[in-house]
Each structure stands twice: as structure tokens, then as C-alpha cells.
Design goal:
single chain, 213 residues, alpha/beta, TIM Barrel, 20% strand, globular, binds the ligand O=C([C@H](O)CO)[C@H](O)[C@H](O)COP(=O)(O)O
Length: 213
């Protein structure tokens, strides 16, 4: 199981500072959608250059022009790029084909997919690398969480790795880990804490611990 730090509400210098604090405790650093909107793919490039041993995920939430946008994110140094599960199959196929050419991976974000079980089976058949259940900020504010959805994809996804994101905190991580996703994505649960390094370290211990079935 891997731990991904999501950076959403920072500029590039702040992003570098946070990653520096926690780098030994995470596997992947995510350049979040708001950061890409504010700073462009330059943020991906600068973080990859500053932390070459970490994988960098570009959270582009691609909805169209799959191949082109994957190519641009790869050129900036992204290792993993997000595409929305709600989009059409042709965008996902284009993204997957280009990712293979570039030697990068595709994570499908299932945010706001209505029939999760059916769509997860469909995108799993398209050769994507990760399928991620995700409760976005706006639904988190209404008290929603992605934990039940994680169990759904764990049941139906046969090929891709599974991932989970949306409001995960140190106190809810044990419940998440119990479902054994391949990737746990945490933003505010680390970046909003006073001692980010200590929290990231505790989270790392939880995700690396073997779960007894
Ligand atoms: O993808 C995200 C969100 O849509 C804003 O871009 C976040 O990175 C993701 O939700 C993880 O962050 P937290 O919910 O703060 O853990």
C-alpha cells in the first residue's frame, strides 16, 4: 500500500516546503487541481526536479483531449495523471494509449460517477492503472466520505490498482487500511496539521503495516 500526499492549497515554494518536511514518509506527491490551475504544469516540473526520487501525480482531472493532455503532463515530468471516470471511453482510451507511449500511468478518478459498480467494471477493462473513489471537497462539506465506495471497487475491480481519496485523517485511516486499497491519498489530513512530519510518519506506519485478513 502506498501513501500519496495531495497538495491543493499552496503555491510552488510552499509545496516544496511541505514535501521537504514529509518526503521520507510518502511515496507519491500530488500536484492538486487548484495548484495546476494557479501555477500550470510548471508546478509538476519544479516538484519533479526538486524531488526526483518521489513519483509525481498531476491531478488534471482530464475530461477531454485525453492523449494531448497526458502528453503535456508527461513532458512536465508527471509519473501518474488523472482522468475522470465520468468521461467517455474514447478519452480514457486515448489517455491510456498515450500513457503507454510515454511510460506513465493513468489514475481514473470516479468522483461523482453515479453507477460506480458498472463504471468501475467498464474502466477496469480499458487498461487503466488505478481506479480511485473520491469524495470531493464540496461533498465532504456535506458530511460524505468515500469509505463505502472503496468496498464497492475492491469487490468489482479485477485488473487496476484501487485508490481512495477525500477527507482521510489519521483517525479514519485505520478503517481505510482495513479495506486494503493499493493507494491512500491524503491532503488536508497532513497539510492541515501543525506537525506534518509526525502525522505523515504515523500514516506511513499504518499503510505499511500488514493487515491480517
Ligand atoms: O482531489 C482533490 C480535490 O478534488 C481538490 O483538488 C484532493 O486532492 C483530494 O480530495 C485529497 O485531499 P483531501 O480531501 O484534503 O484529503
Amino acid at each position: 500500500m502506498e501513501l500519496q500526499l495531495a497538495l491543493d492549497l499552496v503555491n510552488i515554494p510552499e509545496a516544496k516546503q511541505v514535501v521537504k518536511e514529509v518526503e521520507e514518509h510518502i511515496d507519491i506527491v500530488e500536484i492538486g487541481t487548484p495548484v495546476v490551475i494557479n501555477e500550470g504544469l510548471r508546478a509538476v516540473k519544479e516538484i519533479k526536479e526538486a524531488f526526483p526520487s518521489l513519483k509525481v501525480l498531476a491531478d488534471l482531472k482530464i475530461m477531454d483531449a485525453g492523449a494531448y493532455e497526458v502528453m503535456k503532463a508527461s513532458e512536465a515530468g508527471a509519473d501518474i495523471i488523472t482522468v475522470l471516470g465520468a468521461t467517455d471511453d474514447s478519452t480514457i482510451k486515448g489517455a491510456v494509449e498515450e500513457a503507454k507511449k510515454q511510460g506513465v500511468q493513468i489514475l481514473i478518478d470516479m468522483i461523482n460517477v453515479k453507477d460506480l459498480e458498472q463504471r468501475a467494471k467498464e474502466v477496469d477493462a480499458l487498461g487503466v492503472d488505478y481506479i480511485c473513489v473520491h469524495t470531493g471537497y464540496d461533498l465532504q462539506a456535506e458530511g460524505e466520505s468515500p469509505f463505502e465506495q472503496l468496498q464497492t471497487i475492491k469487490r468489482v475491480v479485477k485488473n487496476a490498482k484501487t485508490a481512495v481519496a477525500g477527507g482521510i485523517k489519521l483517525n479514519t485511516l485505520p478503517e481505510v487500511v482495513q479495506s486494503q486499497p493499493d493507494l491512500v491519498i491524503v491532503g488536508g489530513g497532513i497539510t492541515g496539521q501543525q506537525d506534518k512530519k509526525a502525522v505523515a510518519s504515523e500514516m506511513q506506519q499504518l499503510v505499511k503495516k500488514k493487515v491480517l485478513a
